[in-house]
Amino acid sequence: MISPVKENFLREQILRLGVREEDITEKFVRSRGPGGQNVNKVSTCVHLKHLPTGIEVKCQEGRSQAQNRLLARQILLNKIEAVFSKNVSEEKSRLEKIRRQSRKRSLRAKIKILESKRRHSMKKSFRARVSEFSE
Asked: What is the 3-state secondary structure (H, E, C) of 54-113?
């Protein structure tokens, strides 16, 4: 039995992410591993796939199908949220990079760059051929 609190939390997370139930395919398959007769007879393993993103989740941690459905949905929503937050952070960093590129340099930075150019010029001038002095 799944508590109503967990179900409500799951519904809120689905609404917050904007995931539709129609976008999720759900299959029930038999679990693997230890568990004896229950594992062999009952399809407690839940396989979820979110069609728009292609994210797949398989859950067989609990003994009941209802428990595995809840866990699988939570895992799926966490993965979807990670993908969305990654896209958002990439967009933010791209915009910040554009802002930095278009920002004017400060006076101190300009002076520092000019000084560096002068030093580089002096270094190069010392490498030039020595001309003969006519006295």
From this structure: CEEEEECCCCCHHHHHHHHHHHHHHHHHHHHHHHHHHHHHHHHHHHHHHCCCCHHHHHHH
Tokens representing residue 63 in the block: 């003994």
Which helix (H) or strand (E) is 16 found in, with range?
helix 4-17
Predicted confidence (pLDDT) at residue 119 exceeds the cutoff of 80:
yes
Residue 83: left (phi > 0), alpha (psi -120 to 50), or beta?
alpha
- 28, containing H or E segment: strand 24-29
Domains of the chain from N-terminus onward? 4-84 (3.30.160.20)
- And the tokens for 56? 């797949």
Quick: pLDDT tens for 49-75: 999 989 999 999 888 888 899 999 999
